[in-house]
Amino acid sequence: MAASRFVRSVWTSFIEAGGLEGKLLQNLQITSVEPGRVRFKLDIEKHHTNRLGMLHGGTIATLVDLGGSLAIASRGFHATGVSTDLSVTYINSGGTVGQTVRAETICEKYGKSMAFTSITFHNEADELVARGSHTKYIRGAWNDPRNIVEEVSK
Questions:
Q1: What are the Thioesterase domain coordinates in residue numbering (predicted)?
Q2: What confidence score (pLDDT) does residue 16 get?
Q3: What is the pLDDT of residue 153?
Q4: Tally of structural domains, the chain
Q5: For 28, phi and psi rounded to 5 degrees?
Q6: Is position 154 within any domain?
Q7: Does any domain span residue 153?
Q8: Where do runs of H (alpha helix) occur along the chain?
Q9: Contacts 24+ apart (CB under 8 A), 12-16
Q10: Interhelix angle for 57-73 vs 3-17, to 10°?
Q11: Residue 11 lies in a domain
Q12: CATH number (domain holding residue 72)
């Protein structure tokens, strides 16, 4: 199974679980996948914004969390671990309703216990909106029978 198809299946499992991601980010579109790297975009809707009508920092933080998970999935992990650290630096406005924010997330390193990811966001003017990092504990994720780590690493 290609990394792209696998990551899309992991994203579908997030939506089907009925949690925050499925409610807040249902219109997220994965635009490209390669082992260790995922790009996606989100068309900004009213529920993604703050009281000033701009993309909410909490939406971006949720995207950092999800993006880290998808980057780990691109390495072949179906279970993507649990968060140990998440950081966001906000730089510019992400946009308003009707605009699109784009993201690129990278799984920089993973081992037996930990995975380290980073993410950048750009608005429609191609300005850097935010950057984030996400660290996850993945020891238990290695045991998921749905993993394709060996297949993706080839």
A1: 53-129
A2: 92
A3: 65
A4: 1
A5: -60, 135
A6: no
A7: no
A8: 3-17, 20-24, 57-73, 149-152
A9: 13/78, 14/66, 14/69
A10: 130
A11: yes
A12: 3.10.129.10
Residue among 111, 100, 101, 119 nearest 137 (CA): 111
Task: List the strands of the sheet with 128-137, edge to edge.
Answer: 29-34, 37-43, 100-110, 114-122, 128-137, 82-90
Give the range of the structural domain holding residue 77, as residue numbers without chain letter: 3-148
Contact yes or no for 39/31 (Cβ under 8 A): yes
In a domain, 53, yes or no: yes
pLDDT tens for each residue of 98-145: 999 999 999 999 999 999 999 999 999 999 999 999 999 999 999 999
- Rounded Cα distance between 30 and 33, Å, is 8
Structure tokens at 5: 């198809």
**57-107, pLDDT tens digit by residue?**
999 999 999 999 999 999 999 999 999 999 999 999 999 999 999 999 999
Torsion angle of C-alpha atoms 29, 145, 112, 109, degrees rounded to 10: -20
**Residue 10 near residue 24, CB atoms below 8 Å:** no
pTM: 0.94
Report whether pLDDT(154) > 70: no
Given a contact cutoff of 8 angstroms between Cβ atoms, the answer to whether 141 and 79 are in contact is: yes
